Amino acid sequence: MGSRPVTGQEVDTGAGRPSAASLMPSAGIVFGGNLVARALGLLFPLLVAHATSRTDFALIYFFISTGFFVGELVLTGFPTAVTRQVAVATGRSGGRWLIAGMVAGVPLLFVSAVIGEILAIAAAAPPLLTTVVVCGLTLDAYYFAAVRGMQRFRLLMAYRILANLAQILLLGLAVIAGAASVPLVVALYAAVYLVPIVAIEARWRPVVSLVRDAGSWSWEEVSVLTRFAVPALVSGVAYGALLGLDVFFVRLFAATDLADYGAARTLAMPVLMVPFAITIVLLPRAARASSATRLQLLIRAQLVALGVGILLVGGYFVAGPWLIVTLLPREYAGAIEPLRFLTPALLVLGSYSILSQWWFARNRPITPAITLAVGAAVALLGHVTATSSMGAPGAGLAIGGGAGAALALLAVATWRSHD
Hints:
This protein has 419 residues and is mainly alpha-helical. It has one domain (20-416). It has helices at 23-51, 54-75, 77-88, 94-122, 129-149, 153-176, 182-191, 194-203, 206-212, 219-242, 245-253, 258-268, 273-287, 291-327, 336-361, 366-390, 392-416. Helix 2 runs parallel beside helix 7, helix 2 (54-75) packs antiparallel against helix 10 and helix 5 (129-149) packs parallel to helix 7 (182-191). The two termini are 35 Å apart. Mean pLDDT is 89; it is low at 1-16.
């Protein structure tokens, strides 16, 4: 291992800084690719709903969502730090940051797996499958972080599309063979990321080249990543509590609603597509931008995301019942009501996501961590009160309340802050 001093501020201060106008073309590439990937991804739970019983569908959805929640410990902190450091790195240092981030993430992977098993036992679900999900998502998170940091956005979308295409094809084969059991579906969901990684690295070698040219990493680099990763990790866990722990509480308080809630949640997720596309581009672009340009990037991003999001939510209120009747088996008619609560909640959460990534780009992750932790606490209180009394619709209210509290606090902090 090397001993070269690092500061975490290896920034290109000359030419090459992005302009505000450069955000939307790249975000458009990500949105277009993500639209295809999400369309393929949406087929996965819909096919599972048609191919399995309501009980098995609810259990599969529980494992995937709970895996996402407990996985936030390892999925967000160091991968987010790696993205930023790869984006601002000079020379061949990007690979060192990736390796250092992976080393630092190993203990968190173990902790995530243990917590996942505890939650599975508490929810009377079979053990081990949450660990399978966490391991698969960890592989995805670090690969995605590296390619995102390199700003290879076309390749990033090819990765997502190939993963979801492989996922639906393999699931289709399992259904045809009559082998679509809960363990097989969960394992397929977790391991499918290996397919696009092998395909992309065999052809273009982006991450192989990044690591091959890295040189030796140091514990100083781990320390620099940790200082950024800890608040990012807090944000990630809080985000997971907002958009992942809801499934746990629905299973705990209203188990009979879980299949309907999972179906509604699946159909509602496209509300986050535009914010997701923007945040993928915003963090690495804004990290290299000047202060004035960074603010322009934020304003443009929020206006586009809110405009599209409001239209989408209105569309769900009009066409939501038709979507449920058309895309899902007849026994999922109960998904209509939670869908109406979930879509506006996700609109608010998407706006918060954009604002928080802007703060991360400024290398100021503590403020979004605090605000999202408060939002998660509000959401948990909402689950204890609303979900326990209203069932699945109450979970949507809890998410909306938590996201709204976090957005309000971070908006105030943004108004008061000076770059």
